[in-house]
Amino acid sequence: MRKYLFLFLIYAGVLQAQQFQFLSKNAKELTLTEFQAYKSKDSLWVIESFLENGKKYNKVFIDSIVKTKTFGKYKQHFFRDTIENTFTIVLRKMSDDEIKKRNEELNAKVEGDKKNKKVMLGKSMQNLVFKDMDGAVYTSEELKGKVVVVNFWFTKCVPCIREIPDLNALKKEFGTDQVLYFAITYDNKDLINEFVKKHPIDFTIIPEDKNSINQFLVGFYPTNFILDQAGKVVFVNDFFMQNMFKDMRKTIKKCLN
């Protein structure tokens, strides 16, 4: 299930708008990154969702393809009407060859992520600079002497949202005397402020921080790290890790003992 969610978010095709005749002639296709950039600037854009035949779809349809495990056979295409400044998402069913190629690309990305995490594990994190929602700055030097939990997430990431209660419980269990907690995202403050009204996050939120995302070699979301008191990475979750929070608790306890 988590794999399909990532597939749905990560891969967007680059087709011409003309292939979807129901779209406005002013519709320009966007990459997923471009679409997210618009969304991060303003969460109130008008967005319509269609199947490739022009029929609108809703959550009921999404739930049905998740239930029948055909979710991963679809690809999202993102369009912006450059005149009306509205957005359209087209859900297109892929061919068998496309699915095979997509899966090969995903597997290669997962393997690359595993290699990056091996590089990160045991690495001493220097030159970190976290700037929170209020402008307070946390540097590597200031973090030393504390165990540091770092969560990478974004507001439209379903698995990220699902683990928020567990992250909040982790902070409640270990407190803040010896452990610090950061939730780092590329989303902007306005988008985050709306999001936390519905999904409170007890971590210190670090917005618009692509630099830290690159420093930690983050390839998938959510990703969680733990740094020991010297700033060394002592934990990073695997892509399909089971019992992750149990392992995170063990790691924190080991650092504190």
Structure description:
This protein is α/β, with parallel strands linked by helices. 40% of the residues lie in helices and 21% in strands. The chain contains nine helices and eleven strands. The strands form three sheets. The chain has a five-stranded mixed sheet, covered by helices on one side. It has a four-stranded mixed sheet with strand order 1-3-4-2. The radius of gyration is 20 Å and the shape is globular. The two termini are 37 Å apart. Residues 1-16 have low confidence and may be disordered.
What percent of the residues sit in helical stretches (DSSP H or I)? 40-55%
- The Rg value, from CA coordinates, equals 20 Å
The overall average pLDDT, rounded, is 88
Helix count, per DSSP? 9
| End-to-end C-alpha gap | 37 Å
Q: What gross morphology would you assign?
A: globular
Q: What structural category characterises the helix and strand content?
A: alpha/beta
How many beta-strand segments? 11
Write down the oligomeric state: single chain
Main sheet attributes: strand count, strand direction, barrel closure: 5 strands, mixed
The poorly predicted ranges are: 1-16
- Relative strand content: 15-25%
Succession of helices and strands: HEHEHEEHEEHEHEHEHEEH
Major sheet: arrangement of strands: 9-8-7-10-11
Quick summary:
The protein is built from 9 helices and 11 strands.
